[in-house]
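question for whoever is on the cluster today: can someone run the full assembly for these? two chains, 360 residues total. i dont have access anymore since they changed the login thing
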Amino acid sequence: MTAYELWVVLGMTAVTFGVRYPVLALVSRVRLPATALHTLRYIPPSVLAAIILPALLAPSGTELELSLANPFLIAGLVAAILAWRTRSLMPTITIGMALFLAWSWIVRTYLGA
Amino acid sequence: MIAGSMSTATASPRNEFWAGATAIVPLIVGAVPFGIIFGAVSVTSGLTPAAAAAMSAFVFAGSSQFVATGMVAAGASAVVIVVTTFVVNIRHSLYAVTLAPHLQGYPQRWLAPLGFLLTDEAFMIVVQRFGRRDNSPYRHWFYLGAGLAMYVNWQLCTWVGIWAGQVIPNPRAWGLEFALPLTFIGMLVPSLTSRPLVLAATAAGLSALALRGLPNQMGLIIAILVGVATGIISERFTHTAGTPDIP
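^ ran it for u. tokens below:
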């Protein structure tokens, strides 16, 4: 484990325990206002989407790759359809991964990318 | 289901513990692929096996572990990763708010471990159990059983995944790290059950794409804020159209 990783794990441990335990400890009537509850529900989808879109559309980290030769985009779109239709994790991951590997191979072999 | 069968049985710490551990099994099964994929993806993304195992052992919060792994792979600073972890996990304080009234009067030596074991899965099972009014004085043992079962399983799955990620030869060449965004897609799409949620995700995704050039993944945090703001604002416009899931 590197020093960087140690800081990451220590920091993550502290903030995660810090959002779980103190509220239980202050057992008094803590009640969040309804607006706070509304706000919190938008965090998980925002986090996920903010990671997914760049990973599909700019997999190299810089260039926007809106083309059929981008296997991340093709497999990601199909995975999204699968996730929407099946609402299940395993087919989304397995079929998405299989398509990604196959598409990458096709792109490498026939498009010389 | 299984938990319901013991409401009239003689309550004891042991009974409650095992009832909790049993009731959470369906959710544990659902978490198995997550744990294995986390272990595998974390080592293929550049984390050392020790760091991946330590993350599961001490942080014990699946989605934030995935996010952190992605950020480590992208070269984000430790501070940005920790801040993002806080943002991702803040929903746990909501769970704590819900469970706290049921745990009044318990000593800190119980509340600290129960707090540590508070995951999405444990919450769903425990909140059901606590909702039943049956005067069992050992309900905290139910929580402990559910939480520990989840914890042990998460460690085992992480180790299996770390092993799998290492034995696959040259994983980078295969692009297996794509399993991470794929997992996120599988988590995100079914959760988009209302128009404000769809708009929030869309705005966050496009913002992250537009801001991807910012250093230390600062674009990610700004994108999350944009997504949350979009969701809140769009609620005002979609409310008249009728969104029953928003109370």
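summary bc i know u wont read the tokens: The mean pLDDT of chain A is 87. The longest helix of chain A spans residues 3-25.
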